[in-house]
Design a protein that fits this description.
heterodimer; A: Beta Polymerase, domain 2; 2 domains; 9 strands; B: mainly alpha; Cytochrome-c3 Hydrogenase, chain B; 3-stranded antiparallel sheet; 15 helices
Chain lengths: ~150, ~350
């Protein structure tokens, strides 16, 4: 059994398990062998001084949902791509938009925004007034710039 | 045909060795926009996600938002929503059926499908004045009640459509070229599908009997009688057949819902327009619904304010597309087009 911080019931009737960052991977391994074969959703929530990462796990056979939550101050969480391949794009998206680093991810690149984009839009302190323009270089890679003349 | 997808492929002759989808060209960050608007405003961003079947997106958002705000819709509104969601599913599947033909070089079914779809859009126009981004539902109910004319139009549609659908179906399944390009191509196994989070018709074509409408009934889906079509083949043809069977089941649901449509109010008086922007949401809720593409989940976190703190969308096509690099390894380039068409891609939803 893995040590958990807190277990509660959500508004939607799903069990919420709060766990520390160190115990995340052992807990997830245990969940996977318990029949939770479908990782439905990975969400990162910016809490201003820390970040919550929420995993919605689902078991296809038993039709059961469990929510696993971790809280971290330094924006680094171990990746669960090795356990569920579907976490691959989800974690890339959360890295792109919220700026959580998933340690051990095979290909942690931005997914929606081009490489070189400054800031992570879903952070609460993201500056919306700065306009960034996207252009394509000669190799076909996208890049971002603040200069309007360079973009289109 | 499906929007702004870019695929980077490494080829060996005509065989794909490596494939990387590049997405994000339609990215508007709806999740951020949702944080900036009131709960009632955010519905319009959901219309623009899966724009070919917008009503299903509205149902998904409202399932979560109404639970957070504590304003349940009345019984009549629930039935109206089921009718509209199923009509919307038909409209979305028709776009797919037409576009899949185009992917494989058939032009005829496209016109047949869009001709039929137009009739559904006419019903939507009658109900809410808009064809695609309907914005018909609202927190606590729907904007307008059904009148006699709408019900007549839906009944007319139910009479004429089954015959037309069989014509479209026969154009496909009686065509040898279509069969040879779909049978046994792009086989997706059950375990791989679950591991990659594939849902919807694509998962059911791989032999998993999983439909959110049955697994966790929302609205009034537990009061109507319908079946979940599944196939164990997992190839392109199986996905095609499952979608067509789903359309037949949708017609069954609409028929029952029209018969059972109760009288009564069509919106919750707690959610009248002057109150809308003052409603506060607290706590978090994850609602999952079955859109035309798969399991559509909306996760809303409220902090007690009039705007949501965080909105997260689980878009089914996003997950379904992530399996394309696996499916198209070591297949011919032309087969990859057939596989990507069978996924049913809509980029408003993938990029959000």
């Amino acid at each position: 059994m893995v040590d958990i911080i807190q277990e509660s019931m959500g508004k939607d009737g799903r069990k919420i398990i709060q766990v520390s960052v160190e115990n995340l991977i052992p807990l997830m391994n245990e969940m996977r062998s318990n029949g939770f074969d479908h990782l439905s959703l990975v969400t990162a929530i910016d809490r201003k001084d820390s970040i919550d990462v929420v995993y919605h796990l689902h078991s296809m056979d038993r039709n059961e949902y469990v929510v696993v939550k971790v809280n971290t101050k330094n924006y680094v969480v171990p990746s669960v791509t090795g356990i569920w391949p579907s976490a691959n794009w989800d974690e890339r998206e959360q890295y792109d938009l919220v700026g959580v680093k998933f340690e051990g991810h095979p290909n942690l690149k931005r997914l929606f925004l081009p490489e070189g984009w400054i800031g992570h839009p879903l952070r609460k302190d993201y500056d919306l007034s700065k306009v960034q323009y996207v252009n394509m270089d000669e190799d076909g890679e996208d890049y971002a710039t603040f200069d309007a003349g360079d973009g289109w | 045909m499906h929007g702004v997808l870019r695929l980077k492929a490494k080829l060996d002759g005509e065989v794909i060795k490596e494939l990387e989808p590049v997405i994000g060209y339609l990215h508007r960050n709806a999740e951020k926009l949702c944080e900036m608007g009131f709960y009632c405003d955010n519905l319009i961003y959901f219309d623009r996600m899966d724009y070919v079947g917008a009503m299903n997106m509205e149902v998904g958002y409202l399932e979560a938002a109404e639970k957070i705000l504590g304003v349940p819709p009345p019984e009549r509104a629930k039935w109206i929503r089921v009718i509209m969601a199923e009509l919307s599913r038909l409209a979305a599947h028709l776009v797919w059926a037409g576009a899949y033909g185009l992917d494989l070089g058939m032009l005829t079914p496209f016109f047949y499908c869009f001709g039929e779809r137009e009739k559904i859009l006419t019903i939507f126009t009658e109900a809410c004045g808009s064809r695609q981004e309907t914005n018909y539902m609202s927190i606590g109910g729907v904007y307008q009640d059904f009148n006699e004319k709408i019900i007549e139009e839906i009944k007319d549609f139910l009479k004429t459509f089954p015959k037309r659908m069989e014509i479209i179906y026969n154009i496909y399944v009686k065509n040898d070229v279509f069969l040879s390009r779909t049978k046994g191509i792009g086989v997706l196994s059950r375990d791989l599908a679950i591991a990659y989070g594939v849902t919807g018709p694509m998962l059911r074509a791989s032999g998993v009997e999983y439909d959110v409408r049955k697994a966790e009934p929302y609205l009034v889906y537990d009061k109507v009688n319908f079946d979940i079509p599944i196939s164990h083949k997992g190839d392109n043809l199986a996905r095609f057949l499952v979608r067509f069977e789903e359309m037949r089941q949708s017609l069954k649901i609409i028929k029952q819902a029209l018969d059972k449509l109760p009288e009564g109010p069509y919106f919750n008086p707690k959610a009248k327009k002057s109150m809308m922007i003052r409603m506060r949401g607290d706590g978090e809720y994850y609602a999952r619904t079955e859109s035309s593409k798969g399991e559509f989940g909306v996760y809303i976190v409220g902090d007690g304010g009039v705007k949501p703190y965080r909105v997260r969308v689980r878009s089914p096509t996003f997950k379904n597309l992530s399996i394309l690099p696996v499916l198209s390894k070591d297949v011919m380039l032309a087969d990859m087009i057939a596989i990507s068409g069978s996924i049913d891609l809509v980029f408003g939803e993938i990029d959000r």
